[in-house]
Design a protein that fits this description.
Order of helices and strands: HEHEHEEH
Strand order of the largest sheet: 2-1-3-4
Oligomer: single chain
CATH topology: Glutaredoxin
Distance between the termini: 44 Å
Length: 132
């Protein structure tokens, strides 16, 4: 097998590890705004149902709070670090990194936004313009 035939596989693996490290770094970084950490797994059904919600929150509320997804099947230490009992688990953090609330199981977008409001974080959708 030629070394050049391994190059695409190598690039995919490097990209995966860089992305995973970036996500974990974002979860632990010194926050500057409130943060929602969703701990789940790519193959868990309720977690899959959360993905479009998390994507929407990331896209439309990025100026108000940060969303971080951690796959605990790929990063077991992170699940242990946060002391989760089941997936998905959503943890709400203040801008200074203090845990404010925790929810286990699927959580709808309206419930996430309501929880932020209950915690004193006013959220308003800031729709990102789409390219035509």
């Amino acid at each position: 097998m030629k070394l050049t035939s391994l190059r695409p596989l190598f690039l995919v693996l490097v990209s995966f590890f860089v992305l995973t490290a970036a996500q974990l770094g974002a979860a632990d970084a010194q926050p500057t705004q409130p943060r929602l950490v969703d701990l789940g797994a790519g193959k868990c059904i309720p977690c899959k149902q959360m993905k479009p919600i998390l994507d929407d929150l990331t896209r439309n509320y990025a100026d108000q709070f940060t969303v971080v997804f951690i796959d605990v099947w790929e990063n077991r230490a992170e699940g242990a670090k946060y002391g989760i009992r089941m997936i998905p688990t959503q943890i709400f953090f203040s801008a200074d990194g203090k845990e404010l609330a925790r929810h286990e199981g699927f959580m709808a977008k309206k419930d996430i936004l309501a929880k932020w409001k209950e915690l004193g974080v006013e959220v308003k959708e800031s729709v990102t313009p789409t390219a035509n």
